[in-house]
Amino acid sequence: MTRRSTLGARNRGIPEATVARLPVYLRALHTLAERGVVTVSSEELAAAAGVNSAKLRKDLSHLGSYGTRGVGYEVQYLVYQISRELGLTQDWSVAIVGLGNLGRALAGYGGFASRGFRMSALLDADPAIVGDRINGLTVEHIDKLEQVITDCGISIAVLAVPASAAQAVCDRVVASGVTSILNFAPVVLTVPDGVDVRKVDLSIELQILAFHEQRKAGGPGGVEQEYLEAVDGS
Ligand SMILES: NC(=O)c1ccc[n+]([C@@H]2O[C@H](COP(=O)([O-])OP(=O)(O)OC[C@H]3O[C@@H](n4cnc5c(N)ncnc54)[C@H](O)[C@@H]3O)[C@@H](O)[C@H]2O)c1
Q: DNA-binding residues per UniProt (predicted)?
């Protein structure tokens, strides 16, 4: 068993960092398209996506997209190219496991469908939650996990269960043939080769922001001094 936490190496040699930026470009392109913009320069698109233009050009060259000198990139065509690369030109069925605070909020969000992700199944272990209707779906009992995954053709499982339950749920999901997992539980999952796990952890993001806040405020004081003050209580 090996642990993997990235999108894997199946993307025809496109670097992981580029893959991670493609959704950012796509979001910027959607905004431009909504404003009726037909072509965009690499500088404009880079600014909209918050990266530098040399990096953007390099990223897009991996897709075979080089733009036209003096004109830039055709917005709609680039949307198609990136969507195709990310596998968004087809719909993906998603199951959410754990319909507590977080799972319920995710299930109730209507914005995934327009991005190609169909919420198809909701599962929970709590009999008080099983049978609830959320956004047009009925919460099924976790005992039916395998059957639901097969019946609904689930491609991606979102885990919003407590950390203590996450590995066991993950194992069952994987045994049912799902090879993509989005994990919200604060635990590192162990999965076989060929299974991709992405982890979302808002507390890590907050800690990174805290680091930058501290820097803006003049950086950490003397670590030794702070430690002594903390243990002294002074
Ligand atoms: N990644 C983040 O940024 C982030 C933010 C908030 C919460 N979380 C994590 O997300 C998870 C859910 O948080 P929450 O606040 O919604 O918790 P919650 O307690 O409100 O919900 C958890 C749900 O999982 C269900 N559950 C428990 N064991 C199960 C099992 N074996 N099979 C199926 N369902 C099961 C429970 O019945 C409950 O409905 C926790 O692990 C939490 O730490 C992560």
A: 24-63
